[in-house]
Amino acid sequence: SDINECTTGLHTCDAEAQCANTDSSFTCTCNSGFFGNGIACTNIDECLTSTHNCHDNALCTDAHGTFTCACLPGYQGNGVACGDINECDLATACDPKAQCENFEGG
Fold first, then answer.
1. What DSSP state is assigned to residue 89?
2. Sign of the CA dihedral 81, 87, 88, 91?
3. DSSP 88
4. Do 59 and 69 contact (CB within 8 A), yes or no?
5. Residue-wise over 61-74: b if at least 16 C-beta within 10 A, else e?
6. Beta carbons within 8 Å of 105's beta carbon, 6+ residues apart
7. What is each CA distance from 81 to 2, 26, 34, 71, 77, in whole angstroms?
8. Radius of gyration of the chain (CA)
């Protein structure tokens, strides 16, 4: 009878991998956000490898197995979509006697 190495803990898969039992053996596959052979899995830095979906006007921050996006100052949105903040729309942007001019991102 086959021993299930995955459920008995007899496998050598990385903590960031999934174990799959096979007939008289097992396979290891790295989780999403990681690469390797399953025995050793390493975090993928999506920001460094440009595999993220952050907007051009956003900052990408790598995290364990994932990444986050945040709009840069002067922009608003969820990081995947960032739009310019029109500071002239803010009541405190300019003196009432001045003409306000919006600049992209600032």
1. G
2. positive
3. G
4. yes
5. ebeeeebebbbeee
6. 57, 72, 73, 74, 75, 84
7. 51, 42, 25, 8, 6
8. 24
User: Dihedrals φ, ψ of 87, to 5°?
Assistant: -60, -20
- Both tokens of 52, joined, read 């993220």
Q: Which of 81, 53, 57, 55 is nearest to 67 (CA)?
A: 53
CA distance to 37, 45, 57, 69, 90, per residue, from 76 (Å): 40, 24, 9, 12, 14
Cα 17 from chain centroid? 18
The C-alpha angle with vertex 88 and arms to 84 and 94, in degrees rounded to 5, equals 140
Q: What string of pLDDT tens digits covers the 106 residues of the chain? A: 789 999 999 999 999 999 999 999 999 999 999 999 999 999 999 999 999 999 999 999 999 999 999 999 999 999 999 999 998 887 676 888 888 888 888 7
What's at 43, amino acid-wise?
Answer: N
Amino acid occupying residue 10 = L
